[in-house]
Amino acid sequence: xxxKTLLVIATALACVAPSLAFDQEKExxxxxxxxxxxxxTDGQQYTQGNIADKATVIVFIAHxxxxxxxxxxxxxRVSKLMGTKARVLGVINTDPVTAKTYAKxxxxxxxxxxxxxxxxIEAFGAKHSLDSVLICGKDKRVAKQWExxxxxxxxxxxxxxxxxxxxxxxxxxxxxxxxxxSGCSL
Length: 186
Fold this sequence. Notes:
Elements: H1 2-16, E1 31-32, E2 37-40, E3 45-47, H2 48-51, E4 55-61, H3 67-82, E5 86-92, H4 96-106, E6 112-114, H5 119-124, E7 132-135, E8 141-146, H6 151-160
Parallel strand pairs: 4-5, 5-6
Antiparallel strand pairs: 1-8, 2-3, 2-6, 4-7, 7-8
């Protein structure tokens, strides 16, 4: 019983402890994953149950947003740096066939999940293309959420990954945009 109590206290502390590496005002979102079932451009079906097996970053993409083309290489870089211990997934507001074509157009190296009715996007609370969330592979919850992304955001993601079941990675943050990048409304 004592071990279980300590685990509950440790989990609660992890949810309120700010990230000391970057923006100390941002706290862990620690909200449950919304329920969803989305088809990926890789042919797989993704649900809240099967994506939470490891740390996962989801980047939301508005179909046709001109900001996506510039951001795609950055998110491909993030995906590559994560290796196999964590992953990046994109969620787009269009049908599976269009999503597959669009992923090729952008040159994405990670799966893009089709959310034609935008219900998953709304459930996550994403408002714009390039908003993102970090899902903890340990407690299967949304750990953090960001509007858009920047060098600081990418730094936070990589600083937080080990605590959420992901690898320890020290990316060259100079490769990412200093100013926040945000896209079209979802």
